[in-house]
UniProtKB/TrEMBL annotation:
Name of this protein: Medium-chain acyl-[acyl-carrier-protein] hydrolase
Pfam families: Acyl-ACP_TE
Organism of derivation: Seleniivibrio woodruffii
Tagged with keyword 4Fe-4S: no
Keyword Nucleotide-binding included in the entry's annotation: no
Alphabetic keyword roster: Hydrolase, Transit peptide
Lineage of origin: Bacteria, Pseudomonadati, Deferribacterota, Deferribacteres, Deferribacterales
Family recorded in the similarity comment: Belongs to the acyl-ACP thioesterase family.
Domain Acyl-ACP thioesterase N-terminal hotdog, chain residue ranges per copy: 12-128
Gene3D superfamilies listed in its UniProt record: Hotdog Thioesterase
Amino acid sequence: MFYDYIRTKDISDYGADKKLRFDAVLKIFQEAAVAHSASVGYSADTYMGRGNIWILNRLMAHAEKFPDFAQELSVRTWSRGLDRFKGFRNYEIRADGEICIKGSSIWLYIDIERKRPVRVTPQMYEDYQSENVCNMCSMIDGWDRKDAEKYDRSVRVQLRPADFDINGHMNNIRYGELLSLASSDMDFTGKTVGLFYNHEIKPETEFVDVRIADEDKSRIVSIFDGDTLACLCEII
């Protein structure tokens, strides 16, 4: 089952150059996943009522170009499969009907109280109607996480109450904002960006350290909560 919709423009998603920002891409992906799940009977309220929730484990996105504010955005998402406690989801963003951004993600189905994976139910396999259509599947499935301990420079960022969501941790979109902050000197057009979520950041956290390492063909941005790696990002 493919889930498609025309996205209402949000002026806050665009930069001074009138182009869609990278963190807004993560926002659109998140909105699409939530809307698709709700459309097949699995809203956030439904999941929380059962004591379970989907947690994003890793995500990749590739933008051939970033749409400008004048263009109409249409979004497509679909499940490409479920496996025990994992869910695999793909995305496409079109500008005036032309695909400009593709994405792929892996989610973990978690018991909220126990913080442990739980198996997807047989009914969920049926309801999500997965499509055997891949975007970047081999890349995200085989992504070899880089060393987060080596870095060239670091910046400390104060966190805000608005950074945290109803799941009691820092929202996935905020990681995209931190990545963009650390890479303001880079143009993400034509690049593949991967985020590996390793550890949740709780509301009592006051600040994070964003560490940057430049390699021959990539940049590694590691977001640390104290001594704990929260998210590793790679720009290729």
